[in-house]
Design a protein that fits this description.
Structural class: alpha/beta
Order of helices and strands: EHEHEHEHHEHHEHEHEH
Strand order of the largest sheet: 1-2-3-4-5-6-7-8
Helix content: 25-40%
Number of helices: 10
CATH superfamily: Aldolase class I
Oligomer: single chain
CATH architecture: Alpha-Beta Barrel
Number of strands: 8
Largest sheet: 8 strands, parallel, barrel
Distance between the termini: 20 Å
Length: 249
């Protein structure tokens, strides 16, 4: 697997109704149907995956889910399996986002099982890792993130299409951003952990940065060594905000 272009993925979180697809259509028109300078993906709520996939079919935008169950099917009311996302038209899925880890108590072991489920269904998992402000201030950022990488990446992703996303918890939606030097240090540590865990086959998988990525800081962040793209939250909801980040890649 050769990493040739960056991946810019938008996470809509719990935002978006059918009317929001006008933003996707505007983004598609702006990007055109030819080859893009980077991979572009949008991860809407599960209720919009199928409609968004239909809206972008034939274009350069990929569609993903925001989470999946580890199981294929079963008595899991409210759950969505990786196979269901694939059936709805998704090609990727975010797993282990800090909001899932914090609000639902998801462990590294569960995140690993979800990433394995994504591979099983033919989806590319985006495995999220990141430290809290308390951990950062205690000087534990690299140690914490390294542990998450080692325990959240299943061997099943080896040689497959996948990404790791570094999202410092304290930077998500706060407007705060680590220094470029801090981002580089953690991304280098993530790469080293990926290679230790999975071997050199993981050296080409992109490591995305996420956490208050905006049009005015995207170019500098995306130029940092080992930053292979971005996982974008609020700025991905509007085509006018997301497009400059894409073009910064």
């Amino acid at each position: 697997m050769k990493q040739s272009v960056k991946l810019i993925a938008g996470n809509w979180k719990m935002n978006g109704l059918g009317a929001s697809l006008v933003e996707v259509e505007a983004l598609r028109r702006a990007l055109g149907d030819g080859p893009a300078a980077c991979r572009v993906a949008l991860c809407p709520p599960a209720t919009l995956v199928e409609r968004m996939a239909a809206a972008v079919r034939g274009g350069a935008i990929e569609v993903g889910g925001q989470d999946c169950r580890a199981e294929i099917s079963g008595a899991h009311t409210g759950g969505v399996s990786a196979e269901m996302l694939k059936d709805a038209g998704a090609g990727l899925v975010i797993v282990g986002h800090s909001e899932r880890r914090q609000e639902f108590g998801e462990s590294d072991l569960l995140v690993s099982a979800k990433a394995e489920a994504a591979v099983r269904a033919g989806l590319a998992p985006i495995v999220c890792v990141g430290e809290t402000l308390q951990q950062r201030e205690a000087g534990q950022a690299v140690e914490v993130v390294r542990g998450q990488v080692m325990n959240s990446l299943p061997h099943a992703v080896t040689g497959r299409d996948f990404a790791v996303a570094y999202e410092p918890v304290w930077a998500i939606g706060t407007g705060l951003t680590p220094t470029l030097e801090q981002i580089e240090a953690v991304h280098r540590a993530i790469r080293a952990a990926m290679i230790e865990r999975l071997g050199l086959a993981s050296a080409a998988a992109p490591i995305l940065y996420g956490g208050s990525v905006k049009p005015d800081n995207a170019r500098d962040i995306l130029a940092v060594p080992e930053v292979g793209g971005a996982l974008v939250g609020g700025a991905s909801l509007k085509a006018a905000d997301f497009l400059p980040i894409i073009r910064a890649a």
